[in-house]
Amino acid sequence: MRKTAFITGATSGIGEATARLFAKSGINLVICGRRAKRLELLKEELSNYSEVQTLLFDVRYQSEVQKAFETLPDDFKPIDILINNAGNAHGLSPIQEGSLDDWDAMIDGNVKGLLYVTKMIIPEMIKQKQGFILNIGSIASKEVYPNGNVYCASKYAVDALNKGMRIDLNQHNIRVGAIHPGLVETEFSEVRFKGDKDRAKGVYQGYKALQPEDIADIIHFVVTRPYHVNIEDLIVYPTAQASATILNKNG
Ligand code: NDP
Ligand code: 8X3
Q1: Quick check: is 151 catalytic?
Q2: Residue 250 pLDDT more than 90?
Q3: Which of 115, 142, 167, 169 has the fewest beta carbons under 10 Å from its own?
Q4: Atom of ligand 2 nearest to the CA of 182
Q5: What domains are defined for the chain?
Q6: Each residue of 143-199: pLDDT tens digit?
Q7: Residues with Cβ < 8 Å from 200, sequence gap 6 or more?
Q8: Is the pTM of this model over 0.85?
Q9: How far apart are CA 249 and CA 206, in angstroms?
């Protein structure tokens, strides 16, 4: 029987690459995001390989999440694999200069959004006594770096929730794990710098950054282990990176 994966943030970067790899390995998909056109194009492409359903919603709004989830056809339930990937950084400023809107966007999207989506999916996993919840954290879940303040706080929360979910869902035979990437070349920096493409490009220049396909590969490896194996936590850097603040651009 084919498995079904629910991937948030599938319109770009890590989520999109994961959707491609999953589809090609025969996993049916529910792909989510706010950009309808991108979702439709991806569905068209991936329908050559597996069954694909799109869901359009903003993870920050619980009622949107719930309404979208309720439209899911029965043949896309139960969800076997949830990839909690949607998220972004907004801004990179010292705390005293931070914008309230940016703080709200990060806390509502990266933390509350992850919870709202997970809440929809857990009940059926409990009924099935199986499932995999994979949370995409960050090196920012493990280390606070200058000007990272609220983004790091939101990702530390993901780390804590990853642990909390695993503890509470243990009695239900549900696997829970997290992957914490370092620098991955996606639209992440463009969002962080509010559309400043040149500044965003600079983040990935002078070394070979991780590519979204690298993380997709690892996600696929993690979720395809035999059921008795649960990879709890993985930090993944580009070779040029040694910590949140140490990056060799002269290699
Ligand atoms: P991208 O900006 O390329 O992708 C982010 C995805 O999240 C998009 O598909 C976007 O979809 C979705 N998203 C963002 N906010 C919302 C929202 N409010 N509601 C619904 N969907 C949303 O970045 P990445 O692929 O790099 O990021 C994916 C995850 O990886 C994030 O959680 C990020 O924090 C994490 N990460 C990224 C790293 C990096 O260096 N790139 C390193 C470590 C972790 P849409 O805009 O269509 O809604
Ligand atoms: C994304 C990587 O270092 O910009 O989470 O926080 S970093």
Answers
A1: yes
A2: no
A3: 167
A4: 2
A5: 4-236 (3.40.50.720)
A6: 999 999 999 999 999 999 999 999 999 999 999 999 999 999 999 999 999 999 999
A7: 187, 189, 190, 192, 193
A8: yes
A9: 5
